[in-house]
Amino acid sequence: MDFTALAGLPVADVVAFTRPAIDWHAVAPELILLGFGALLTLIDVIFLDRAKQYTAALAGVGLLATMVPILTLANDISETGPRVMFDGAFVVDEFALIMKAVFILSGYVVILLSTNYIGEGDYWESEYYGLMLSSILGMVVMASSRDLISIFVAFELLSIPSYMLATWKKRSLESNEAGLKYYLMGVFASAIMLYGMSLLFGVSGETILTKVNASLTSDPLTGDALSSSTPILTLGIIFVIVGFAFKVSAAPFHSWAPDTYSGAPIPVTAFLAVASKIAGFVALVQLVFVGFYARADVFQPLMWILAAASMIIGNLVALRQTDIVRLMAYSGVAQAGFILAPLAVAGDVGDQALSSIVSYLAIYAAMNLGAFAVILAAARKTGSTSIESMNGLFSYAPGLAVAMTIFMFALAGIPPLGGWFAKFQIFFAVVEQGGTWAILLGVLLAVNSVIALYYYAAVARRIWADEAPNGDLTPIRIPASLSAALVLTVVATLVFGFLPGSISQFTDVGLIAGG
Amino acid sequence: MLLNQFLLLAAVLFCLGVYGVITRKNGVMVLMSIEMILNAVNINLVAFGAFNGTPIGSVFALFVIAVAAAEVGIGLAIVLLIYRNKKSIDFSEVDLLKG
Amino acid sequence: MISLLAQISNGDDLYVAQNIFWWFFAIVTVIAAVKVVTTDNIVHAALHLVIVLAGVAVQFVFLGSEFAAATQVLVYIGAIVVLLLFGIMLTRGSLGDDGLVDTERRGLGALVALLLFGLMAFSLVDGFEDVLLPEDSRNLVEVTTPIDTDIDDDEFIRQTRGSDTAAIGDAIFESYIVPFEAVSVLLLAALIGAVVIARKE
Amino acid sequence: MSLSSLLLFAADAGPALPGYTFAGPWILRNVWLLPLIPALSFLAILFFGKRLPFKGAEIGIASVLSILALAIVANIAWFDHRDNYESEKAEDAAGLLLSDEYATVAIDGEPDSLLLSADAGEGGEAAHGSTAVRNEATWFQSGGQEFKVGTLVDGQAVMMLFVVTFISTLVHVFSTEYVAGDRRYTHYFAFLSLFTASMLLLVVSASTIQFITAWELVGVCSFALIGHWWEEKPNSDAALKAFLTNRVGDIGLLVGMIILFFSAGQTFDIVKINTMALAGEIPQRNLTIAALCLMAAVMSKSGQFILHTWLPDAMAGPTPVSALIHAATMVVAGVYMIARLYGVFFVGFSIEGSPVNPMALIGMFTLIFAGLLAFVQDDIKKVLAYSTVSQLGYMVMALGVGAWTAGMFHLFTHAFFKAGLFLGAGSVAHSVHSFDMKKDMGGMRKFMPTTYKTFIICTLALVGIFPFAGFWSKDEILVGTGGWGLFGGTGGNGNYTLMLIGGIFGAALTGAYMTRVIYLTFFGEFRHVAHHDDHAVDHGHADDAHDAHANHDPHEHGPAITIPLILLAGFATLIGLVNLPPGFITGNLESWQERFFHFYEPSAAAYFPAIAHGTPSYTLAIFASVVGLLGVGLAYFYYFVLVDRKSKAMGESLTELPNGPTSKFGILKAGHTLLVEKYYLDHLYTDVIAGGTKGPLAKAVYWFNQNVLDATVDGVGRTSVIAGKAVYEHIDQTVIDGAVNLSGVVSSETGAGLRKTQNGKIQQYAAYLFAGATLLAGVLIFVI
Question: What is the CATH number of the domain that holds B66?
Fold first, then answer.
């Protein structure tokens, strides 16, 4: 202990500061997104209400513009290998680029969904899109973060705007409550995660994931090799993972999701259920594959428990839901269980587990966004999100009915729609490992896919088989942006299913570059 | 000094914060408990920074402080919004959504 | 405590004064923290929170991180507590005792908190039992380059007082530039969002 | 001996031929056209159907006609290829030009010194093995694993191609009248096309993954078509039940296929899996587990006990759909799958040389069980549905005892006569707007002569009366059980005595319940009364659309309905002749025997087990026929004699003998001795003792006639009915349905319990969060 510092005594230490080399091409997606976010804010400040009608379009253009450097980078990286910056804290590799593309595209679809909803609902528009962009920026940063601090900050950057977006229907108590619950649970989760990070930082003295990983195999004090984990490591790893288990709404950390989903504005719900959840998985994947890979004895059982619990709890509770959005929330919990399953065997079949997760995430984005697009469109007429409000959809909106059926069956994993390939790969990776526990998990996956069918098919049945409420058969007016979103997601769901190669050639990534 | 002195103190603060967020009905008091939890983490970070002889611990703590400030700001905004709509910030009454 | 006594009996090089101070501040902090989560008076809770936050700042000083300590005082005590007090005022929290601040969930809260503490304490004791902090962490900051007045574009060489403040600054702008920028976006977004959420229509 | 004979011999002596080639006739290499055409037709109907004059039906019919033609061409090409491929290869190797001669030899069947043995019996078949034609392409690549799609065309596949396209064509034609005026007419045809495409895809699948995809697709189409009239809740419930029950089996399918995938060195290739299984390169244990898992899929898809419950419910769909999907094609997908992966099942269940195995047992149990259930149904389609279940049981049993050809042959013949029966039932129902035999039918032979005749023919085929189709295939199954010396049968793969008995007993059941159907539907008086309107509500069939005709007398339909019936009846009569048992005829026509076996069994291919074939026996054929006729006879006596007599006496058209207390009184009054078991002994005593003194002989004969015969008939009939009812009510509807539903209820209740934890209190959630984290960490630190 040194009190000299307090006393202000001079100590002549000299430290060199080296300006870090910045690869501008590699950070171009983030910069473009940031630029458009700033532009949006500026335009709002300067033109006030006059620019209101263009904000959504501008946000959309911003996202599409961000795709440009992502594509050029993808081209670059295939030749030169991953770009690593800041001692490995920021890495642009195949995985990062694919996930960035998924974030950008799902963000774009969410903006398509939002356009009329926000415009017609008399909400704050330019701020809405500004926050949406900053949340997407957080996700994009997350995909490249290979460092505890970066992951933490990216996590907060993507979360905090979405807390507010969930509250966006300010006059609705449900929306307020949704935002509050999401906010509080988010803060608690990040507190637990931070505690875990502090422990990991403590034993390794580093925040770069590769270095953390390297330190996990030896005792922090003696330097001896560790045959199994120590309590402090286990605690750290688990607390960090729990923080993201909250984000992906894995049971038992899912309790916020149904409440928040059903209270938040529907486009925001779609955003939370898709982009935000995928961001959680991206973080988990990076942590598991780069940060904790040496400690498979800790994360594998944990992931096993989380996956099994999520599938079972999500599916069982979904059976009893009467609100379609809550149903989607619980189905999302169950889907999270599916996506976590390969992580339970990641230590043994790394590459396969990784590519199966990446495929699932991309396909999941298409299916789920599509389902929310239909819910949103149907709610335009019925003004309700109860499952009954979907009754007889076919009789007055056959296109929506067909689309919803496709999404429901895709989510249930019926071939040859998108979801089957996703589920198949997961199943494949899990069984590939071949151990008793992996097989058991495989059986759980299979059983749960059957249970899930009950409620997905029940929705489809209502759409086709039941009478429209009050016999009201007036058609739904679907705005162009919503139709565009529907077309995009339907096409993606079908193409991913019929031609799995279209997605697997991109998602067939090797182990993540750690820097 | 022992490293564990600091760590255990942090653990005590953390758990007291947890107790607070579970039991307090008043929204502002829940926010206070959250601050305590985050502070506990900061003690951990700085202590580990000192233990490992690296400034990263303090850097991390600073990031946490910055983020905590943002969080408490919007937390308060949400609490105020709820107060305006409900004339109450009793979190145990905020249970419209369930099931 | 036991290890402390053991150190004394072993005649180790002890900082007795520091330890006494430490225990004093630690106890005060914990007592204040208990008050924060148990008192029925919301303003008292806020004031006790100030003590806790200050106590944490003192811990930072003990750990030789003055910059963090200063930030703690400025941001937490200077800004956040004030914000919370505004919150109390705007939500018309009563200044006297308020019987409605607690819930019936006390047992559950205590159970969860105790279990959590048990787990943390077990792990910490198991992992870092009797581990001493280095005497001065800053000694580990290496001098890499001698003082040089030639400043070229790529390498700034500064004279530093050797405090951790400089090291923190260097670390932020060498390795953590991305999260740093992200935090700035985050603060801006939070600012805008909080205004939208909180303002009257 | 010529050089080529040496080569052939060498092939015989060495390891089995690989059994496939990538060469071969163009049509066999390009059978992917068959699924493609109806798939395109599906899209075309969806997009343009409504604007066309016939609302899309014309596209559907054009597409099925074209694929029917292609299927026939494929069959012909296969016959040629089957006989000539090996010789072509040999000739290539030997540099000889004998192919023309070989072709003639094989087709004309003239004895040839080289191929004498090959044609005369199975002994030489090895030298003249079947060579499947394959074609494949890479679907996608993932994790270094190539996923191939392709076509595998062999006898089994081309046979099935013909069945599917033929039945589908007839069903299309039939449907133009049957569902005319339906408001989803266009969608109906679209889904028929999609179904046909999926089924054809399944048939030609070369990889298990492709097979699973097609399997799911046919399930979805079946779901859509069963629920075609979803406005009625029972219909949509039935659709859902079918779908969900099938998913249970799909787990088995998935797990089984994955086990095979890994066991066979990471391949989905059906040929390779079979080959490795047969070569002993896959551990027996894996094969057994995989076979058991796949059996679950067979049980659900092919309606085997205990997962059969969806199939009778699935009759809620339009009748032509039932004929196509739930009689001829989709439900046999499970049987087809067994046949496709026969190597796996053959080794996995140790079919060879054992007296019993799970597959044979399930098949036998199903055939008897479903036969009993068919007794107590009043809905004509449900009788046929249970009958289908029962016949599928025969097929599974046949495959279970190693009689591959018999099983496939039964599949083949059954497709025609059962489709004929379903369409016949549909034709009747279309007239009376109901499926209830007891309430709304009776005496239909007068109104609908064509339907009546074709229905009778198909029934004869189903019951297995010589020389109708079912006789040949059923007899072959019984022969295939093998080894029971009593009837002189020899050979076979084991001593499946139990299955032989079960099969014979099942024949009697079949005869009996079909006779009941015939009587109730076509004989007696038309019972259709004015209660039609309530009735339509109860049953909710397509016929609601025809309420306009409700009060007309039933009448025969136009050619769109009768021509398919006549064609199917024709097939039901003659198709059995394609596989005459060896030794049935001699002389010049000898080569016309066993054509089905010769062309369709992939003998001597490495992917197919070397199965032994039973030798047919006249004794067995006659005995089984007699037992079958006994069933017919008993039912005939009960319905056509007793019930008919009673009906005439009472002046109304009865459907069974009245047996309530009041009617018993009436019986005595009328002087008829209706014998209910209770009174059997009373009559015995009074008649024998009291009448013994006057005209003992006449009395005895009269007594014998009135008591013993009647009592026997009545007793047997009644026992069967009671047994059937008991099984239906207590086991089928209670236990099995209960078990199927129970899992759903348990899940749902657990869900409800869990849902309560979601009480909306945010701080409760916080407690879950922290407690969850603590417990997880605690478990991992202290337990694991």
Answer: 1.10.287.3510
Structural domain boundaries, residue B33: 3-91
The predicted-structure confidence for A363-388, as pLDDT tens digits, reads as follows 999 999 999 999 999 888 888 888 88
Contact assessment for residue A364 and residue A280, using Cβ atoms and an 8 Å cutoff: no
d(CA D84, CA D102): 7
pLDDT at A407: 93
Q: Tell me: the pLDDT tens digits for D529-547?
A: 644 444 333 333 444 444 4
Residue C170 has pLDDT above 60, yes or no: yes
* DSSP code string of A231-283: HHHHHHHHHHHHHHHHHTT-TTS-THHHHHHHHS-HHHHHHIIIIIHHHHHHH
Average pLDDT over residues D761-773: 87
CB contact at 8 A, D420 and D572: yes
CB contacts of B81 in chain C (<8 Å) are 197-198
In a domain, B97, yes or no: no
Cβ contacts of B92 on chain D, cutoff 8 Å? 761, 763
The dihedral built from the CA positions of residue A114, A117, A122 and A123, taken in this order, carries a sign that is negative
Phi-psi region of D443 (alpha: psi -120 to 50; beta: other; left: phi over 0): left
Above 70 in pLDDT, residue D86? no
- Which amino acid is located at A498 in the chain? F
Distance CA D120, CA D431 (A): 51
Query: CATH 1.20.120.1200 occupies which residues in chain C?
Result: 1-102
- Report the 10 Å Cβ neighbour count for D51: 9
Give the C-alpha distances (Å, rounded to integers) separating A338 from A142, A254, A335.
Answer: 22, 14, 5
Residue D376 pLDDT class (50, 70, 90 cuts)? confident
Q: Kindly report the number of other CB atoms within 10 A of residue D189's CB atom.
A: 28
Cβ pairs bridging B and D (under 8 Å): 29
Residues D39 and D46: beta-carbon distance below 8 Å: no
Residue of A243, A514, A151, A500 whose CA lies nearest to A356: A500
Chain A neighbours (≥3 Cβ pairs under 8 A) are: B, C, D
CA distances from C9 to C13, C14, C20, C125 (A): 11, 10, 16, 21
Amino acid identity of residue A102, one-letter, is V
The model's pLDDT over D316-333, given as tens digits with 9 standing for 90+, comes to 778 888 888 888 888 888
Six token digits for residue C91 = 């939500």
Split into its structural domains, chain B has a count of 1
Q: What share of chain B is helix, strand, coil (3-state, %, to 5)?
A: 80, 5, 15
Count of residues for chain A?
Answer: 515
The complex's ipTM?
0.88
Does A470 score more than 80 pLDDT?
Answer: no
Determine, for residues C189 and A232 on separate chains, whether the beta-carbon distance falls below 8 Å: no
Cα–Cα distance measured from residue A27 to residue A140, given in angstroms and rounded to the nearest whole number: 10
Query: Please, are residues D222 and D195 in contact by the beta-carbon 8 Å criterion?
Result: yes
Question: Which CATH number applies to C1-102: 1.20.120.1200, 1.10.150.120, 3.40.50.800, 3.30.450.20?
Answer: 1.20.120.1200
User: Taking CB atoms and an 8 Å cutoff, what residues of chain C touch A11?
Assistant: 138, 161-163
Pairwise CA distance, residues A258 & A274, whole Å: 14
Instruction: State the average pLDDT over residues A386-400.
Output: 84
Contacts of D76 (CB under 8 A, 6+ apart): none
- Stronger pLDDT, D266 or A407, i.e. the higher one: A407
Q: Supply the pLDDT for residue D749.
A: 75
Instruction: Name the more confident of A493 and A499.
Output: A493
Q: What are the residue boundaries of the structural domains of chain D, listed by start?
A: 355-531+554-584+594-653, 654-735, 741-783
What integer pLDDT is reported at residue A418 of this predicted model? 83
Q: Is residue B86 part of a domain?
A: yes
Are the Cβ atoms of D763 and C105 closer than 8 angstroms?
yes
